[in-house]
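Posting this for the archive.
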Amino acid sequence: MNIICLKSQAGFDLTKLIEKLDLEPNSTLTEPREGRNKGKISLRGMKRTYQRNYNQREIILPAKYKGIRLYAVEGALVAEELILTQKELCLIYTAKSKLLVPKLVERLLGIEQFQLVEPDPFVRLAQESNAFDPREMPVYGKGIEAGLLTHLPWQIYIIHAAWQRYLANPLDRIALRQLRVKVRRLRSCLTFVKPALRQDDAIAWQKRLRAQGEALGRLREVDVALISLEHMQSSITQNRPKGGQLMQVLRSLQKKELAEIEPLASNEKITLELMQLLMWLQGQPVAAAYSNMSWKKFLHCRCGQWSEAIMKWRYKHADFSNVEEDHKLRIKIKRFRYALMCLPEINQDSGLMLRKLKRLQDVLGFIHDDYVNGQLVQEYKNRDEKLNYEIATFSGWESAKVAAALEQLPELWQDFCQQLQEWKRR
């Protein structure tokens, strides 16, 4: 049984919903089925008393949606101080009806805004309260198929929520950064498990997720440059930021990037794309050669391959003299860190190693951002002496930051490699 769950952002009106879907009002809704239960649930090893009340009604769909069952669910799950409200639509579909799901969801999105969420309210409560452990999901098992369904869908849900926060305020720097981190984390995990997937589909989804990241990447670069320029001006003018022509140039570029993203990142487009990714995972995408391999064996094998690839880099580019090569290393260790953070089966006792990895990643990130900032503003040199002076000052500021960060790298790198080797021996 495959389920797509859409949480209403405003609290849907069933009468309006049926009207907009062009359904017959008198024969469309089943009688409500009420449910009440209580008991104990475990969240991060702590037992909590819960009580759940809900009301469920099926919306009978016309023949053109044959094979899809649509339920409206309203209710609440209360586990002591934790509360989860339910105002959602649940679509149950089969392999034969999966091509009809996007058509129905597209109609629903034309009525109101929905958010993709975990169908199981108990699992969702754990996710929303930062108490989620994929190993505690009901479908968790030994095979790779079960591993994918317990480790990847929750990331799709939080990416969709992050997209909605960003779309509500595209100038929110925190929302933009968090969205990009979440997309990169899912991309890292997908790359990690890619050998076990049907390759054509996996490569196609890598490209689609990369496109999401690239759509936001240029905007993030401009935003980082603005932050750095503001910091420089505050330092020079005793915490009283000034404007200047370079600031105006970057603000104009920011508006341009926002305008270019807008048609590519509508709520409807993002919802449908992430839902299709979720449906692909539900459709058993594991390659035949890996169908009988255990999830833990696969994870340990991949972890070994990725750590060895990082260690090999050590002997090729140990002097950190090439910023572009340093950036490639940053991508490798960032993927490694994101994947480990999402895989509790293999990240035991990795806290110290991950902290050193994070420090190394941060310094490499500073170097890359400062280097990109300096290159970005060079594009706007012209015959205006004031603007050219501001660009030269800013570029010098960024170059000095790069030089200072580069001095730290050899020691950070050696420290991390030593800790990685110790962790692998455990």
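The mean pLDDT is 88. The chain is about 60% helix and 15% strand.
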